[in-house]
Amino acid sequence: MTFATPAVLGGLVAVTMTASGAFAQDARTAADLPIAVQMYTLRDHGTLDEQFAAVQAAGVTAVETVGMQDSTAEDLSALMAEYGVEAISTHAQLDDLRADAQAVIDFNKAIGNDVITVPYLAEEARPTDAAGWTALGEELAGFSATLQAEDMTLAYHNHDFEMVEFDGRTALEIMMEAGGEDVMAELDLAWVARGGLDPVEYLGRFDGRVFAIHAKDNAPEGEAPDERGFKALGEGTLDWDAILPAAEEAGAQWYIIEHDQPIDAAEVVMTGATFLTENLPDSATR
């Protein structure tokens, strides 16, 4: 009878552990990772029921809702439970917070969400100078304090118009400084790039204050006009090999798949979920 020596046994254990580790890495799923879907992407994809079905089909278990999703809190909660998804943020218009912040709070508490993200400013509501952006930041600070008292967080989602500079600082930086450290950034990196800035470098300006990134891609110039020039994640011009580690370094908690005008929303969600599952850094965890 031949017995394996300790050295051989050690080698076998090492090989087994290595193989197990590789298998575990390969077995990562979207449900294991901080991947979510912005429901705006699916707004034209049939009923709300069908939209959540598309999220589920992609293996994603977290969503960012849009307002009240034309639903009651009770019905929305039941639908999310049916499809095994949780709300990790909602896009709530600034005017809704101004009109009745408590109603926004109550609805989102009822669906289990604790992050309220201001998603957009109408053109007439956009400040035109640094003082105006500072004043807006101070207003956000007030809403943030209200939310903090309810164990909730305020975030702000950018487009390209916040990339305008005043004395070398972007409007978003000015506003966020005035808002205080409790106001988090939800950086839409496709819009950052459209604003003429490098997403990797820009992420570093918000180190420790990045709640999430909106993970979507820009088509090459002149392409995909019927999709507003956007592409499915990983199929466009953004350098995700550099962006994803930079987002992790900046402390991003979530990677939210979005496309502003997809031809096939369900396919965009599936493609985004697959791309993030295969490419998120090992440190990206829920």
From TrEMBL:
Pfam families: AP_endonuc_2
Gene Ontology MF terms: isomerase activity
Chain ranges passing through the membrane: none
Stretch forming the signal peptide: 1-24
Tagged with keyword Signal: yes
Ranges for domain Xylose isomerase-like TIM barrel: 52-276
Keywords on record: Isomerase, Plasmid, Signal
Domain of life, per lineage: Bacteria
Name of the protein in its database record: Sugar phosphate isomerase/epimerase
Organism for this UniProt entry: Paracoccus liaowanqingii
Organismal lineage: Bacteria, Pseudomonadati, Pseudomonadota, Alphaproteobacteria, Rhodobacterales
